[in-house]
Amino acid sequence: AHDPGAKTEAEWVAADSNPRDAQMAENLLWYLRQHPAEKVICWGALPHFANRVEVLGSEELRAYRPMGRAVKEALGASQVYILGTLAGGGTHGLPGTAGVAVPEPAAGTLEASLLALSSPYAFVSLKHDAPGRQLTTYAIDYQPLAGPWSEVVDGFLFLRSVAPPHLAAADSVAERADSTVALAAVPPPPGSLNPASNRAGTTLRRGVAAPDVSGVRLVRGVVLDQRNRAAVPYATVLLPGQGKGTTADANGRFALPLPGPTKLQIRSLGYEIASVQSPVGNEELTVLLTAAAYALAEVRVATAPPDPVAILKNVIKNIPTSYEQQDYATEVYRHDRVTNFDTLRYEAESVSRLRVLGKVAK
User: Fold this and answer.
1) Helices (DSSP H) in 50-125: which residue ranges?
2) CATH 2.60.40.1120 domain position(s) in the chain
3) Are 267 and 248 in contact (CB under 8 A)?
4) For burial by CB atoms within 10 Å, which of 61, 202, 292, 304 has the most?
5) What is the pLDDT of residue 352?
6) Model-level pTM?
């Protein structure tokens, strides 16, 4: 039956989302209370994550209380950073659609100023560089809104051109025919302020079955220095003969999925190689590495210059004992962070998988 309290798209106003935003804020705050040591990144529509939208001079926004404001008030302004996005051109819309053209920014708007820089993207720090400054942007619903935007967001990420997300392409014609399902009528998610009307003929990719991982469990461990129990950062954890493994983090901790009790080999520069058996239960594995003692051979000082040919022949002769002969794979963790005083300018984390070829051709 039709809900008599339901509103049409024309009747819907931003404040109608207040109960939803309040619940979303409570959900996020509950999660943060359960994980107080974690840094949490949330992705969503800017109006929901914004702070004090009532300062923007929109009559509709004056009664709106987004979740971002509730979270900031609960945690404190210094504990939450709201990053909005701006578009200089392109199209916007639902995934898989052609989208609607992004309006051309009017002269004097923040988008117009950023377009003049001829850069594909830019970061604008309002919190530190433009507090209280009156700006006009199209950040909400692609409508120009003026006000002290530093009270709404802490910064903006500007993209010169945007486009709607697109569905992943199928690997073959047969897969496309099998993986596309037509739905008669699917209610799309509500827009940033007003809910979109129902659209028919929406296509969705059918889910792909997950691989069978029965019997595989995640083994966690920590690599420590045997002398002082200090963490050994970025140690390499290998499965001998299988070409698989991982790398410990900066605190010496690692996690590796294993099919059962397995022999592991742990290596780190300056330490002897350790071989251990993974635990049978769920207990954490502690690996103690012993500092390597290197005994130097006798050194002879000769007056005659060394023979380069003889040196190279000796290097080639000792390849089997001087270099790793077994292929293996490892993961490399990288964390880049660039700050300007108290302003974070750039931060990125990445994990790369490398395959190292042990045998060297003569």
Assistant:
1) 67-75, 110-115
2) 223-295+325-356
3) no
4) 61
5) 83
6) 0.48
